[in-house]
Amino acid sequence: MSSNPRIPIVVFAQVPPPEHGQSRMVMLALEALRLNKEKFEVFHINAKFSNTLEDIGESSLGKILLTPKYLAKAIIARLHTRNPILYYVPGPVKWSSVLRDWVLLSVLRIFYSRVVFHWHAIGQGEWAHGSDRMSLDGPGWIDLVARCVSRWVLDEPFASIAVSDTSQRDLLAVGSQKQYVIYNGIEDPCPDFDSKVLPLIRANHEKIRISDTPCFRILFLSHGTEEKGILDAVECLRIALDTSDPAWRFQITFAGGISESTRCEFDRVTKSILNKWPDRITVIEKGYLTGDKKYECFNNNDIFLAPSRWESFGLTVVEAMSFGMQIVATSSDGVRGVLPQDHSYLSPVGDPRSLSENLLMCCGSIRQQPQIDRAFLVRERFLSIYQIDGYSENIVTTFGGMAGRPRQVRALDKPRKEITEDRRRRLRIQIYLADQNPGHDRSFGISRMSQVVMAALKKTDEIDVHAITSQTSQQPPEDIECQILPWGTRNKFVRLLTDHFHPLFESSEKAPDIHYFPKGYLPWISQFSKPSVVTIHDTIIQYDEDHYPKWRKSKDYAYWAWMLKFTLRDADLILTVSESSKEQIRRFMTRHRIPEKEITVTYEPCLYEEIPQPMNPGKKDYVIHLASREPHKRTAQLVKWWLEAEQNGKHLPTLHLIGTLPAEVSPLLASSQTLVRRPFLEDAALRDAYTCARALILPSEIEGFGLPALEAYYLGTPVCHVAETSVGEILSVATSKGRFSLDNPESLFKALDEVTAMSPEEIYQCGLDLRTAYASDQVAHKMIQAFQGLVAER
Length: 794
Fold this sequence. Notes:
This protein is α/β, with parallel strands linked by helices. It contains 28 helices and 25 strands. The strands form 5 sheets. Strands 15-14-13-16-17-18-19 form a 7-stranded parallel β-sheet, with helices on both faces. A 6-stranded parallel β-sheet has the order 2-1-3-4-5-6, sandwiched between helices. About 3% of the residues have low confidence.
């Protein structure tokens, strides 16, 4: 029996020296792959463009002259291996790094069809696709041209690896065919935590607690650049000295070296601080530290200060966590990603005053009571997530799963004869998915519905499911036959062409009995997709044009209205997800003089039906709202009502705003004690938010179905919603509680009181009733009946 061939991998990246987070992680990944010789054949091209920390990201003639040498090595490695994976680390948004990536990738991607980007230096992918968080130096038009070039060399790699959940913007922007998150890991720098470090923490905290003149020892450990926040750190210290108890003393250690670009300003501010408060402040400078000296530096300080403005992964923060240190940090992507979601001392980026307030709050907590329990929790987080063994194992597992190309047409696990005989009595349904790019467009909810529906249809004995999608779009469940078009559809122009001309590229060996479009729009050449079935979820685009004409460009409204009219006229069968949406569609057809057609309501299943209905889940004192900039979602109105009630003295729980806020809302949050802004959450974190919330608030004016309402009840959380919308219809099979009017803010708070007073038993029963009414097998049964009826008619 022959063994599986080894996977060839060419690692094109620098390892230490110089020693810094990115080069260290590349080295660890390289070592992990090489240790698994039976799985991988590893070639390493040490693209040593930098010799010192100061060299990183800087331009030089020497780097230019090295480029042909490393390219030649990569091409030779490619010629000696069969279809290898190229491992590459894109650079940050700096001219030297961007130009290097242009030259290297424009050549390498000719020779390597399977390129894996490891996004240690975040930013270039999202910048290339229009992000305004960063730009290159120079005129604006040059920056725009540069973005186009980077977009060309970076787009649609074979795979991308992000280093934390909060550092995935590049991965999503470039349209990676495969997407992974692998947390960086390190050797435990503090293996004697219990025996040596913890007793010292206890003694130091007790000393601070009982002293009349406590001294708080603070550590900044990073290369001292403006990007790493060193100037914010010294300004934070100045504010802390100016606003804290005069009896408090501070000792701050700056370890890692001060860059030449910040040296003058750093010296000026520290000198003024030392002159003004000579008896209250001690400033210690140390260079780059390793080994015992680094251990002593962590062990001899109480608080770790991490004011980084831009970070892909907070490696030094992870090291501080291993020592159980108290951490005061900014919410830059990578730092926020390694800390727990409810971390107490997290400040906005580039805000020394907020940083100072959190620093003093941390000092006050130590002063009032030794933080031994918190030290244990911080240390436990490190042990459970950020150890080197886990990182190495994830690297090996991830690359081990890249053995083949992205799947193309995949046969079912049956003998060919059996498949042929079986299909004589089964309907063959082809589902179009290339118009769904979850996380990149508005199809997130539809994609979740499509996934559950496909799985439910596949379970039946009456349907064979075949999918057609693109490399970057929604993928079907693993056991469904699929054709993947050899391009991605993140680009709007490519997406439009694919949507309308994909029938010309279908490679199915047998014509489908039905062409199904779950997003609800037919291709222009729909004559090649007959018979056709669409699920039209709502007419919100028309609603927005009527009520919020400035929300989208007039040409966008015109295009989508034309598409919907074309679809309604040409579709052979129209499905929808509620009686409310059915009425919306009927009004639209009447308005645009489209001949009447039968519309079948199938309702919609929920992804969470596989999770057991919880009985009395642990609740916290907050409610949630899935925030949106779309005007019909009414996020702005909800925030204004909430602020007004809070200012009028009404007792309110905390309201967590999860997602993207309208521009006019953000400035209002600073004046509130009960509004909390949270980012878009991945599914596991979103489920946790649902489960712990006392209620979900849905103030939408219009919905097609209202899937979040089901998600909430399925996880044991009641819902406040606008009366006379589809949400009320959907929930009516289980409860009438929680309804309010958008014309009356008091009705909202009355509804909130009503649902938060529901007993755990009542909520549990509501969840069970909804699960019965909208079970995926029930939805699949309704759809199959509609499919069979259409085929019988023809």
